[in-house]
Each structure stands twice: as C-alpha cells, then as structure tokens.
Amino acid sequence: MRVVLQRVKEASVSIDGQLHGKIGKGFILLVGVSDTDGEAEVDYLTHKISKLRVFEDEAGKLNLDINAVNGAILSISQFTLYADTKKGNRPSFTKAGEPKHADQVYEQLNENLRQAGLDVQTGVFGADMLVNIQNDGPVTIIFDTDNK
Prior knowledge:
GO terms for molecular function: D-tyrosyl-tRNA(Tyr) deacylase activity; Gly-tRNA(Ala) deacylase activity; Ser(Gly)-tRNA(Ala) hydrolase activity; tRNA binding. The protein is an alpha/beta fold. It has 2 helices and 8 strands, in the order E-E-E-H-E-E-E-H-E-E.
C-alpha cells in the first residue's frame, strides 16, 4: 500500500458538486492499494498513522499524535499512486490493485482507523472527486508498505 499523508488545517471532498466529507485539523490520506496488499499492510498503516507524532506540542516540537489534538482524517482512494512512468509519457496503472480488492482493503483501513478512535471521513472509491486541501506546515509523509 502507498499512503501520502498530509497534515491539514482543513480538507474536504466533493462529488458531483455535493460536499461528501469535511474535516478541520488532522490528516488527509491519499491511499493506493496493490493486489498483494491485505490485513498485514492495513494493520501496519493503522498503527503508524494513528501514532504518528507530527503535531506541535507547547514547546513547538512535532511531538503530538492526532488523538492528542482531537484531529480527524479525510481518506481518499487514489489508484494513481501506483503510476508507472518509466516508458513514454502516458502513465501505466497496471500495478494498482484490481478495483474490488482495492476497495475492500481501502475500506478496511478506514474501519481500522475508526476502531482506533479516530473520526474518519471518506470520499467514494472510484468516483471523480474534487479534493480541497489546506496543508499545514507543510507536513507530508509518504508510506509505502513495500519499504517498511
């Protein structure tokens, strides 16, 4: 799995002109799934994301996790994280997971994050979405479970 995590002051997702999810302070997750991803990758990412200390404490150090700041998550599926641009100018997405499998893994990540006590808003898997991100910092972390 590949996840691009950004610390945000606020973020939202709209589908067909309708607001579908919105958060204040927290994380936006752009989530890509491959066919080999499953429970082990979801568990790993749930732990890393829920415990990641990238919010400032009273001394200004990045020392607090998302729970400590009452943050929320906006999770967006994004198969394009598996783009292969080695040949030509048109990316190939053959390394992205088959849609049914990828949707199941994506939904399991979201559910596990909820079970960890987090407020998780989502887009709609496979939908054409307009995502608004107000990156805070900026703080951007890239997770790739193939490199854990």
